[in-house]
Structures are given as structure tokens and as C-alpha cells.
Amino acid sequence: MSATHKLARILATRSGAGIELALATESGQTLKVLASQDQIDMLVDELEDILNSPVEPGDDEPPAAA
Fold it and tell me: What predicted TM-score, i.e. pTM, was given to this entire model?
């Protein structure tokens, strides 16, 4: 598993039938991924669940990779 990097910004654009995400880190690295609309819907649902859940002590750690 690679090291965790601090997110600077996310850019999203439609690319054909998919959606391209560009994740930029504070160190200047950029990762581009192409996702389907269904994958973006699942990502939005997961982020909403996280944002709506109570913060637990010790939640400073990144989640384990799926």
C-alpha cells in the first residue's frame, strides 16, 4: 500500500460515457481515474454516510483499503 497524501483538490469532468476525476495532492502529485456513473453514485453515497456519521475518537487514521 502506498503512503497517504493530503488532498489539495479534486476536479471532475465528463469524459465520454464516464467521469474523469483528477485528485491533486499538496505535494503536487496528480492521479487521474475514469469512473462510471454508477461508481460515482456509490462514492457519493459512501461520502454522505461518512459525513453524516458521528466522529469517533481515534478516527485520525485513514480507512483500510477495500
Answer: 0.72
**What DSSP character marks residue 17?**
T
Q: Is 1 helix (H, G, I), strand (E, B) or coil?
A: coil
What region does 33 belong to: left with phi over 0, alpha with psi -120 to 50, or beta? beta
Listed as own residue / partner, the contacts of 55-58 with beta carbons closer than 8 Å and 24 or more positions apart are: none
Handedness of CA 61, 5, 26, 47 (dihedral sign): negative
pLDDT tens by residue, 35-50: 999 999 999 999 999 9
The C-alpha cell at 31 is 492521479
Quick one: which H or E segment has residue 24?
strand 18-25
